[in-house]
Amino acid sequence: MKGFAMLGIGKVGWIEKDAPACGPLDALVKPLAVSPCTSDIHTVWEGAIGDRHDMILGHEAVGEVVEVGSLVKDFKPGDKVIVPAITPDWGALESQAGYSMHSGGMLAGWKFSNFKDGVFGELFHVNEADANLALLPDGLDMAAAVMLSDMVPTGFHGVELADVQFGDDVCVIGIGPVGLMAVAGAALRGASHLFAVGSRPNCAALAREYGATDIINYREGDIVQQILDKTHGKGVDKVVIAGGTAEDTFVQAITMLKPGGRIGNVNYLGSGDYVRIPRVEWGCGMGHKIIAGGLMPGGRRRMEKLASLMSTGRLDPGKMLTHRFQGFEHMEEALMLMKDKPRDLIKPVVII
Questions:
Q1: Angle of helix 38-45 relative to helix 331-340, nearest 10 degrees?
Q2: Distance between CA atoms of 60 and 278, rounded to whole angstroms?
Q3: 14-31 pLDDT, tens digit each
Q4: Which residues of 284-303 are buried (b: 16+ CB within 10 A; e: fewer)?
């Protein structure tokens, strides 16, 4: 089969590989709509998870089931399915402890384009199909539903990690696709003042549509000071980090956070060896300013619940799709958009 792959650090291209085999609990799926992710950029051009050779990229897809294993009960060939970016091993001890995304080791629930070939191939393999696939509800735009694979659950998980409550003042740092979904999730969870940090006009406009009350433009001054000015020097109750760097962003987040507040980080820190934590602003280690960082949960139940938000009109992630391509041959073009990030980009999708 043909696939678009990481050939090595800094190198991508089309390759031919043997089609994957289907185990008794598994499924083989052909992609119908896929989207590249900034994580793919970190993986290829920063070598964030180490060198990979001839590994098919991609972890965001809606597809059609082609084959199922003999023990699969709930899916059959021809079913249209949402495929989560994280496909855990549900019998692992880590899953039983409540951390399925780390089943088999830290981050090991993230298999596509990490430990095995991803979804940018003519076929891809899904482990434990009954637990890791979800039927695409009738009437949902499959291009918009691709956002349920990663962007929506990652942004929402940042909100969960920050434990946003009714009436909280919340700041979301970074309003790319994940940050925009964090804004939407914080609004659904009852945030009051909801500050969105970003500079691109289209992202800022969409952040307001998703519930942001204020846009904090880092090009117009220090974001911490802007937050303090808008909160009368008090800061915010919760921060979601969906962009920025390990060197600067955590300093800003901790400084703008009230004592007793929480930071939820879902930003993929693709470079650097350490995260900077400011000693004094962290209360000399005793400020009860909690930092939680996590990989999104995956699996069928999560996909079904998020799809329900789309079906009922509570959430429209399709608003983020700024570039639509028709045909598998546009895969590289879409990926390079995520690398180069033109001003009009939020998220591309490739319809296959």
A1: 80
A2: 36
A3: 999 999 999 999 999 999
A4: eeebebebeebbbbbbbebb
